[in-house]
Amino acid sequence: MPYPVLETLHQSRSRLESFMEVSHAIITLIFGHLKPPSGPTNGQPIRSTPTTR
């Protein structure tokens, strides 16, 4: 009987990808809440953002 290495690798890869996507979304949410929405990262021009710190 051949070892189901490909299946386990595929499952672990899909789990890893989903975990990375979820963690990336959480990180972006946290940093979005921490940092003010300013800069080209959010698609907003830097000039139009009010300078309130």
Overall description:
The protein has a domain of 30 residues. Helix content is 57%, strand content 0%. It has one helix and no strands. The longest helix is centred in the middle third of the chain and has 30 residues. It is rod-shaped, with a radius of gyration of 20 Å.
Sum up the structure in keywords:
mainly alpha
| Protein structure class | mainly alpha
Radius of gyration, in angstroms, nearest whole number: 20 Å
Number of strands: 0
What is the ordering of alpha helices and beta strands?
A: H
- Give the overall silhouette: rod-shaped
Distinct helical segment count: 1
- Percentage of residues in helical conformation: 55-70%
Please summarize the sheet with the most strands.
Answer: none
Unreliably modeled segments? none
Mean pLDDT: 72
The percentage of residues in β strands lies in under 5%
Termini separation: 65 Å
Topology, pairings included?
Elements: H1 5-34
Quick gist of this model?
The chain is an all-alpha fold and 53 residues long. The chain has one helix spanning 5-34.
